[in-house]
Amino acid sequence: KQEVTQIPAALSVPEGENLVLNCSFTDSAIYNLQWFRQDPGKGLTSLLLIQSSQREQTSGRLNASLDKSSGRSTLYIAASQPGDSATYLCAVTSGTYKYIFGTGTRLKVLA
Amino acid sequence: SQTIHQWPATLVQPVGSPLSLECTVEGTSNPNLYWYRQAAGRGLQLLFYSVGIGQISSEVPQNLSASRPQDRQFILSSKKLLLSDSGFYLCAWGGNGETQYFGPGTRLLVL
Predict the structure, then answer these.
(1) Which of A44, A96, B25, B63 has the smallest C-beta neighbourhood within 10 Å, fewest atoms?
(2) What share of chain B is helix, strand, coil (3-state, %, to 5)?
(3) Distance CA A76, CA A58 (A)
């Protein structure tokens, strides 16, 4: 049974700092991995999707990497800003209709 | 572009009352549709998914049910709410193993 873990559960950093969020999964037979952002009381917004054949994806100040064999993904945020404050969730799918989500990392960027 | 609507945004219901949450999608046809529940401090739990009209798969036993009467309409229901049904309900759509797009969510409080 696939399980997704995100560490740390919460993180507070000063503005401008580069930071890394971690996601690990127990079954390496995944189809893709996605990172989402969730603002308080809102739905999820997709940030990056990495196919199982890819090693990384970049969008602006965000870079997500995938090491399928070790069951790990990281989301790198460069030059963090207060507007980056949110909960970040990762999710994996084995290619069926089912997506398994982690519990998220709550990020606070201090001005 | 794709848009996903959910209503109501917030709902307070007494224990034992019925429930009906609606989700509609625009800008796509024959989407896979999903209902998730997010309890405080926990990840997203997949409740139901649907790959077509009248086709519903349930992920966890519970007193909730789902229906898909039209291609782009997904309804979550209960005949008698329990306290444990409180949470944040999210509707999403997505293709097979591709990015999921989420609605704004419905916050349900059962008293």
Answers:
(1) A96
(2) 5, 60, 40
(3) 9
B55–chain A nearest CA distance, Å: 13
The amino acid at residue B3 is T
Cβ pair B96:A95 closer than 8 A: yes
Give the span between the Cα atoms of A50 and B51, in whole angstroms: 23
Q: Which pair of structure tokens corresponds to residue A44?
A: 């999820």
User: Chain B contacts of A89, Cβ < 8 Å?
Assistant: 43-44
pLDDT digits (tens, 9 = 90+) for A56-91: 999 999 999 999 999 999 999 999 999 999 999 999
> Which A residues, 65 through 94, put their C-beta within 8 Å of a C-beta on chain B?
89, 91, 93
pLDDT digits (tens, 9 = 90+) for A39-51: 998 999 999 999 9
What does the alpha-carbon distance between residue A8 and residue B87 come to, in Å, rounded to a whole number? Answer: 23
Residue carrying the six token digits 């990495």: A50
CA dihedral B107, A108, A78, A32 (to 10 degrees): -30
Secondary structure of A37-100 as H, E, C letters: EECCCCCEEEEEEEECCCCEEEECCEEEEEECCCCEEEEEECCCCHHHCEEEEEEEECCCCCEE
**Residue indicated by tokens 């898909």:** B68
